[in-house]
Design goal:
By secondary structure, the chain is an alpha/beta fold. It folds into two domains: 180 residues, Isopropylmalate Dehydrogenase (3-Layer(aba) Sandwich); 140 residues, Isopropylmalate Dehydrogenase. 39% of the residues lie in helices and 19% in strands. The protein has an eight-stranded mixed beta sheet, sandwiched between helices. The chain has a two-stranded antiparallel ribbon with strand order 4-5. The protein binds 3-isopropylmalic acid and magnesium ion. The site of magnesium ion (MG) has 3 residues, from α9.
Amino acid sequence: MTGAAVRVLQKVRPGVECVQADVGGAALRAGKPALPEEARALCDRSDAILFGSVGLPEYDGKPLSERPEYALFLLRRDYELFANLRPVRLFSGLESSSSLRPELLKDLDLIVVRELTGGIYFGKPKEQRTGSDGVEEAVDTMFYRAPEIERIARVAFELASKRRKLVTSVDKQNILETSRLWRRVVDRIAPEYPGVRVAHLLVDNAAMQLVRRPAEFDVLLTENMFGDILSDEAAMLTGSIGNLPSASLGRKGTPGRQFGLYEPISGTAPDIAGRGIANPTAAILSAAMLLRHSLADEAGAAKIEHAVEQAFAGGARTADLVQSGETPLSSAEFTDRVLNFC
Ligand code: IPM
Ligand code: MG
């Protein structure tokens, strides 16, 4: 779907140079590592990364370092892309594709702020091994240090101060030590933003509230794995996981010109790969986020978002979004509709 995003990007900003490199499954299949050196070198000299999706069932049995996902893991880690923004927005006309009743979706406009370089994804030890009694065992470690929480909390509070001024911080502080630290640090940062309210929710309750009263959320701040899970849930409010873009930002660059990685929130869809029917919305909206955060082009970003809105309003739907009786558009046809409004 990155091809669709590139078409839109180049229409809106013809001067942008887009260079492609294989990572993940494409690189592994060519006998290379998940993140080949040439891809990394290209990322080093780029302003931003527009990322496709990773994941292939044929690598399911392999260790992480031999799986497609490792490319993403390395890029997030090595560029310290700690702030993952996942806006959840319901386009007008898609209400009936949502998993929820339309009346619950009125005014839905939330953003998940997911910590992306810490927690159980990265903590050590992280391994499968044999215990001293010969029994197979495995360990992942959920680990956070206060500064990691402070910096992501600030991102959430900053965003909220420009939105509806509510940060809902999600943790599991009744059980997890990392969550107790998380909550304490968030509360410590909160007074720096006197105009912003902070609420805390346990993650199981947050999962429930997201389908009970989703429109009440503004900024949902959470750690790496909880954010992974809750953002897939939130995506279904919008009708399809294929609708949700994301931006992963770090310390490189300056505000408005931050280096970032932009990608759909979903993995691959191997069952439909190559058929030309996937929904390119998430990729296209990721390109909009790229313009906004890495190229200081708010007007270009808004133009793309508006074009997607217009395409949906005009009835354009890919197969994941059609209702019975409607004819789905292919990925390319949908992209053409978006391009018409750019
Ligand atoms: C996401 C994805 C990734 C994650 C996978 C592909 C490793 O699910 O970005 O949400 O778990 O972070
Ligand atoms: Mg995910």
